[in-house]
Amino acid sequence: DTAVSQTPKYLVTQMGNDKSIKCEQNLGHDTMYWYKQDSKKFLKIMFSYNNKELIINETVPNRFSPKSPDKAHLNLHINSLELGDSAVYFCASSRRSGTQYFGPGTRLLVL
Amino acid sequence: KQEVTQIPAALSVPEGENLVLNCSFTDSAIYNLQWFRQDPGKGLTSLLLIQSSQREQTSGRLNASLDKSSGRSTLYIAASQPGDSATYLCAVRPGYSGGGADGLTFGKGTHLIIQP
Question: Is B103's CB within 8 Å of A48's CB?
Fold first, then answer.
């Protein structure tokens, strides 16, 4: 009965690699999000997406790209990983501007 | 640019006490405000959502208030228990008109410890 799920839970990789994090929601929501929680535990929005519109936080490098194969999924692709990309990435979903529900997070470590 | 501040950054109280966590935001043009708790190494659990037109919301021992004009919200926890120990996060959604999607702006949280 998981609402928002993410895979993998942990991801350890080398600098320069390309990786993807998957997110799925079974709540029937129309809007999904990606957030980054840095080493100081501060959460910041990266992207929000519904089936019509992608809104990108201007501080996000273009090495990051969200891809949505369907309404229930919003995957995060990261190219040319850097040390500073190490963080916890959270996926979330909501019905338009309603309550946002978060996934368990993906802990990314770039070596 | 919206900024969200939470005070105090950390709080430790004995079990059974009532307590108040504070949140302030710089831009009063918000659509709603949401309180979350985050346990160590875990995701975020939504506690309460207050729409901009509302003054307060209650769920069990939790009560959240919103004063949009002054840019403030409080989370009141009654009869605190050790299980309430967690980081509590306040987040605001920007106001908008006509649709579109946008994310939450978070505070840095209040780390709460309830001593048995």
Answer: yes
